[in-house]
Design a protein that fits this description.
Order of helices and strands: HEEEHHEHHHH
Radius of gyration: 19 Å
Strand order of the largest sheet: 1-2
Oligomer: single chain
Number of strands: 4
Number of domains: 1
Structural class: mainly alpha
Length: 269
Protein backbone atom coordinates (compact mmCIF):
# COMPACT_ATOMS: atom_id res chain seq x y z
CA UNK A 1 0.00 0.00 0.00
CA UNK A 2 1.84 3.05 -1.30
CA UNK A 3 -0.16 5.39 0.94
CA UNK A 4 0.54 3.51 4.18
CA UNK A 5 2.85 5.26 6.72
CA UNK A 6 6.41 3.86 6.45
CA UNK A 7 6.72 3.52 10.23
CA UNK A 8 3.82 1.06 10.66
CA UNK A 9 3.21 -2.58 9.86
CA UNK A 10 0.26 -3.07 7.50
CA UNK A 11 -3.05 -3.40 9.36
CA UNK A 12 -3.65 -7.05 10.25
CA UNK A 13 -6.56 -8.92 8.64
CA UNK A 14 -8.38 -8.99 11.97
CA UNK A 15 -11.69 -7.26 12.61
CA UNK A 16 -11.16 -7.86 16.33
CA UNK A 17 -7.93 -5.85 16.43
CA UNK A 18 -9.42 -3.10 14.24
CA UNK A 19 -12.45 -2.75 16.51
CA UNK A 20 -10.24 -2.87 19.63
CA UNK A 21 -8.00 -0.13 18.24
CA UNK A 22 -10.89 2.19 17.40
CA UNK A 23 -12.68 1.48 20.68
CA UNK A 24 -9.57 2.05 22.76
CA UNK A 25 -8.78 5.37 21.11
CA UNK A 26 -12.38 6.59 21.33
CA UNK A 27 -12.95 5.53 24.94
CA UNK A 28 -9.69 7.05 26.23
CA UNK A 29 -10.21 10.28 24.31
CA UNK A 30 -13.74 10.48 25.74
CA UNK A 31 -12.35 9.88 29.23
CA UNK A 32 -9.98 12.82 28.69
CA UNK A 33 -12.91 15.06 27.68
CA UNK A 34 -14.82 13.96 30.77
CA UNK A 35 -11.84 14.92 32.93
CA UNK A 36 -11.91 18.38 31.34
CA UNK A 37 -15.62 18.64 32.17
CA UNK A 38 -14.98 17.69 35.78
CA UNK A 39 -16.32 14.13 35.53
CA UNK A 40 -13.41 12.39 37.22
CA UNK A 41 -12.72 8.70 37.68
CA UNK A 42 -13.16 7.68 41.28
CA UNK A 43 -9.61 7.09 42.41
CA UNK A 44 -7.87 10.41 43.02
CA UNK A 45 -7.85 13.68 44.89
CA UNK A 46 -10.76 14.84 42.71
CA UNK A 47 -13.13 12.28 44.16
CA UNK A 48 -14.56 12.52 47.63
CA UNK A 49 -15.79 9.70 49.85
CA UNK A 50 -18.40 10.76 52.34
CA UNK A 51 -19.53 8.43 55.13
CA UNK A 52 -18.14 5.42 53.31
CA UNK A 53 -20.22 5.99 50.17
CA UNK A 54 -19.54 7.40 46.76
CA UNK A 55 -21.18 10.72 45.95
CA UNK A 56 -22.72 9.13 42.86
CA UNK A 57 -24.69 6.50 44.71
CA UNK A 58 -22.45 4.25 46.72
CA UNK A 59 -21.11 0.79 46.06
CA UNK A 60 -18.55 -1.54 47.55
CA UNK A 61 -15.29 0.19 48.44
CA UNK A 62 -11.77 -1.20 48.54
CA UNK A 63 -8.79 0.27 50.40
CA UNK A 64 -7.02 2.39 47.77
CA UNK A 65 -3.84 0.31 47.81
CA UNK A 66 -5.75 -2.92 47.26
CA UNK A 67 -7.84 -1.30 44.55
CA UNK A 68 -4.77 -0.19 42.60
CA UNK A 69 -3.29 -3.69 42.86
CA UNK A 70 -6.52 -5.05 41.39
CA UNK A 71 -6.07 -2.51 38.58
CA UNK A 72 -2.49 -3.44 37.67
CA UNK A 73 -1.79 -7.08 38.53
CA UNK A 74 -3.85 -8.76 35.75
CA UNK A 75 -2.04 -6.80 33.00
CA UNK A 76 1.31 -7.71 34.57
CA UNK A 77 0.29 -11.38 34.57
CA UNK A 78 -0.70 -11.24 30.88
CA UNK A 79 2.62 -9.67 29.84
CA UNK A 80 4.66 -12.13 31.91
CA UNK A 81 2.69 -15.23 30.91
CA UNK A 82 3.13 -14.36 27.22
CA UNK A 83 6.72 -15.59 27.46
CA UNK A 84 5.48 -19.01 28.57
CA UNK A 85 2.95 -19.44 25.73
CA UNK A 86 4.55 -21.10 22.68
CA UNK A 87 4.58 -18.75 19.70
CA UNK A 88 3.07 -15.82 21.59
CA UNK A 89 6.17 -13.62 21.38
CA UNK A 90 8.03 -14.43 18.18
CA UNK A 91 11.14 -12.44 17.36
CA UNK A 92 13.06 -9.64 19.04
CA UNK A 93 10.38 -6.98 18.52
CA UNK A 94 7.62 -8.99 20.17
CA UNK A 95 9.93 -10.04 23.01
CA UNK A 96 10.97 -6.44 23.68
CA UNK A 97 7.34 -5.30 23.61
CA UNK A 98 6.25 -7.98 26.07
CA UNK A 99 9.23 -7.21 28.31
CA UNK A 100 8.48 -3.48 28.25
CA UNK A 101 4.83 -4.09 29.13
CA UNK A 102 5.84 -6.41 31.97
CA UNK A 103 8.34 -3.87 33.32
CA UNK A 104 5.75 -1.09 33.06
CA UNK A 105 3.14 -2.92 35.12
CA UNK A 106 5.70 -4.43 37.52
CA UNK A 107 6.88 -0.88 38.25
CA UNK A 108 3.30 0.16 38.92
CA UNK A 109 2.73 -2.75 41.30
CA UNK A 110 5.98 -2.02 43.16
CA UNK A 111 5.06 1.66 43.42
CA UNK A 112 1.69 0.72 44.88
CA UNK A 113 3.39 -1.50 47.46
CA UNK A 114 6.39 0.62 48.39
CA UNK A 115 6.21 4.19 47.02
CA UNK A 116 2.74 5.70 46.89
CA UNK A 117 1.03 6.95 50.02
CA UNK A 118 -2.67 6.13 50.25
CA UNK A 119 -5.58 7.25 52.38
CA UNK A 120 -9.20 6.44 51.79
CA UNK A 121 -10.91 4.04 49.43
CA UNK A 122 -11.93 3.50 45.84
CA UNK A 123 -14.99 1.76 44.40
CA UNK A 124 -14.60 -1.86 43.36
CA UNK A 125 -16.29 -0.97 40.07
CA UNK A 126 -13.57 1.61 39.33
CA UNK A 127 -10.79 -0.86 40.13
CA UNK A 128 -12.44 -3.47 37.92
CA UNK A 129 -12.91 -0.99 35.06
CA UNK A 130 -9.26 0.09 35.13
CA UNK A 131 -8.12 -3.52 35.49
CA UNK A 132 -10.12 -4.77 32.52
CA UNK A 133 -8.93 -1.83 30.40
CA UNK A 134 -5.24 -2.48 31.09
CA UNK A 135 -5.75 -6.22 30.69
CA UNK A 136 -7.35 -5.79 27.26
CA UNK A 137 -4.79 -3.17 26.15
CA UNK A 138 -1.91 -5.50 27.03
CA UNK A 139 -3.46 -8.61 25.51
CA UNK A 140 -4.52 -6.82 22.31
CA UNK A 141 -1.14 -5.15 21.89
CA UNK A 142 0.63 -8.51 22.14
CA UNK A 143 -1.92 -10.16 19.83
CA UNK A 144 -1.51 -7.42 17.21
CA UNK A 145 2.25 -7.94 17.39
CA UNK A 146 1.76 -11.68 17.00
CA UNK A 147 -0.25 -11.06 13.81
CA UNK A 148 2.65 -8.97 12.45
CA UNK A 149 5.15 -11.80 13.00
CA UNK A 150 6.86 -12.80 9.77
CA UNK A 151 6.09 -9.57 7.97
CA UNK A 152 9.01 -7.42 6.79
CA UNK A 153 9.90 -4.66 9.22
CA UNK A 154 8.51 -1.23 8.27
CA UNK A 155 10.90 0.86 6.12
CA UNK A 156 11.41 3.22 9.05
CA UNK A 157 12.54 1.02 11.94
CA UNK A 158 11.73 2.58 15.33
CA UNK A 159 12.48 -0.45 17.50
CA UNK A 160 15.53 0.78 19.36
CA UNK A 161 14.46 4.45 19.52
CA UNK A 162 11.27 3.04 21.04
CA UNK A 163 13.23 1.17 23.70
CA UNK A 164 15.05 4.43 24.51
CA UNK A 165 11.77 6.37 24.68
CA UNK A 166 10.26 3.72 26.96
CA UNK A 167 13.31 3.87 29.27
CA UNK A 168 13.12 7.67 29.49
CA UNK A 169 9.38 7.52 30.10
CA UNK A 170 9.48 4.94 32.87
CA UNK A 171 12.44 6.59 34.62
CA UNK A 172 10.91 10.08 34.48
CA UNK A 173 7.53 8.79 35.61
CA UNK A 174 9.04 6.97 38.58
CA UNK A 175 11.15 9.96 39.63
CA UNK A 176 8.18 12.30 39.72
CA UNK A 177 6.01 9.70 41.44
CA UNK A 178 8.72 9.49 44.11
CA UNK A 179 8.66 13.28 44.55
CA UNK A 180 4.88 13.16 44.93
CA UNK A 181 5.15 10.37 47.51
CA UNK A 182 7.58 12.45 49.58
CA UNK A 183 5.18 15.38 49.43
CA UNK A 184 2.29 13.14 50.48
CA UNK A 185 4.31 11.92 53.48
CA UNK A 186 4.91 15.51 54.56
CA UNK A 187 1.34 16.67 54.03
CA UNK A 188 0.02 13.68 55.97
CA UNK A 189 1.73 15.19 59.03
CA UNK A 190 0.60 18.77 58.42
CA UNK A 191 -2.87 17.93 57.01
CA UNK A 192 -2.29 20.59 54.35
CA UNK A 193 -1.93 20.36 50.58
CA UNK A 194 1.29 21.68 49.08
CA UNK A 195 2.41 22.50 45.55
CA UNK A 196 4.81 19.79 44.30
CA UNK A 197 8.40 20.89 43.72
CA UNK A 198 11.52 19.40 42.12
CA UNK A 199 12.11 17.89 38.72
CA UNK A 200 9.79 19.27 36.05
CA UNK A 201 7.19 20.38 38.59
CA UNK A 202 8.62 23.88 38.18
CA UNK A 203 7.37 23.83 34.59
CA UNK A 204 4.27 21.61 34.52
CA UNK A 205 1.67 20.43 36.98
CA UNK A 206 1.85 16.79 35.86
CA UNK A 207 5.32 15.77 34.68
CA UNK A 208 4.54 12.19 35.77
CA UNK A 209 1.78 12.12 33.12
CA UNK A 210 4.10 13.64 30.52
CA UNK A 211 6.61 10.83 31.04
CA UNK A 212 3.85 8.24 31.08
CA UNK A 213 2.82 9.45 27.63
CA UNK A 214 6.45 9.17 26.49
CA UNK A 215 6.43 5.58 27.76
CA UNK A 216 3.24 4.74 25.86
CA UNK A 217 4.69 6.13 22.66
CA UNK A 218 7.74 4.00 23.44
CA UNK A 219 5.42 0.97 23.26
CA UNK A 220 4.06 2.25 19.94
CA UNK A 221 7.57 2.72 18.51
CA UNK A 222 8.66 -0.74 19.63
CA UNK A 223 5.51 -2.38 18.23
CA UNK A 224 4.95 -0.19 15.15
CA UNK A 225 1.39 -1.54 14.90
CA UNK A 226 -1.77 0.47 14.41
CA UNK A 227 -3.18 -0.82 17.68
CA UNK A 228 -0.17 0.25 19.77
CA UNK A 229 -0.29 3.70 18.15
CA UNK A 230 -4.03 3.99 18.86
CA UNK A 231 -3.42 3.11 22.52
CA UNK A 232 -0.64 5.69 22.80
CA UNK A 233 -2.78 8.41 21.19
CA UNK A 234 -5.70 7.53 23.47
CA UNK A 235 -3.48 7.59 26.56
CA UNK A 236 -2.12 10.98 25.53
CA UNK A 237 -5.64 12.37 25.11
CA UNK A 238 -6.78 11.03 28.48
CA UNK A 239 -3.71 12.21 30.38
CA UNK A 240 -3.83 15.63 28.72
CA UNK A 241 -7.38 16.06 29.99
CA UNK A 242 -6.43 14.83 33.43
CA UNK A 243 -3.42 17.16 33.53
CA UNK A 244 -5.57 20.17 32.71
CA UNK A 245 -8.01 19.15 35.45
CA UNK A 246 -5.13 18.77 37.90
CA UNK A 247 -3.80 22.22 37.08
CA UNK A 248 -7.26 23.72 37.63
CA UNK A 249 -7.42 21.92 40.97
CA UNK A 250 -4.09 23.41 42.06
CA UNK A 251 -5.29 26.87 41.03
CA UNK A 252 -8.43 26.41 43.12
CA UNK A 253 -6.39 25.40 46.17
CA UNK A 254 -3.50 27.87 45.92
CA UNK A 255 -3.90 31.55 45.11
CA UNK A 256 -0.15 31.76 44.47
CA UNK A 257 -0.02 28.87 42.00
CA UNK A 258 2.40 30.09 39.28
CA UNK A 259 0.70 31.11 36.04
CA UNK A 260 3.85 30.04 34.16
CA UNK A 261 3.39 26.41 35.19
CA UNK A 262 1.61 24.60 32.34
CA UNK A 263 -0.52 21.48 32.69
CA UNK A 264 1.49 18.88 30.76
CA UNK A 265 4.05 20.18 28.22
CA UNK A 266 6.55 22.85 29.33
CA UNK A 267 5.83 26.29 27.84
CA UNK A 268 3.08 24.90 25.57
CA UNK A 269 0.16 23.09 27.25
Amino acid sequence: MWWWPPFLFPPPPSALVAVASAAQLASMANAGLRELRGEHMAYSKFWQVVAGKRQDGGGRLLPSRRGMLVAYVPALVVAAVAFAVPGAVEGMRAQLLAAALAVHFLKRVLEVLFVHQYSGSMPLTTAATISSSYFLITAAMLYAQHLAAGLPDPPVDLLYPGVAAFAVGIAGNFYHHFLLSQLRTTTAKTKEYRIPTGGLFALVACPHYLFEIVGFFGFAMIAQTVHALAVAAGAAAYLAGRSCATRRWYESKFEDFPASVKALVPYIL
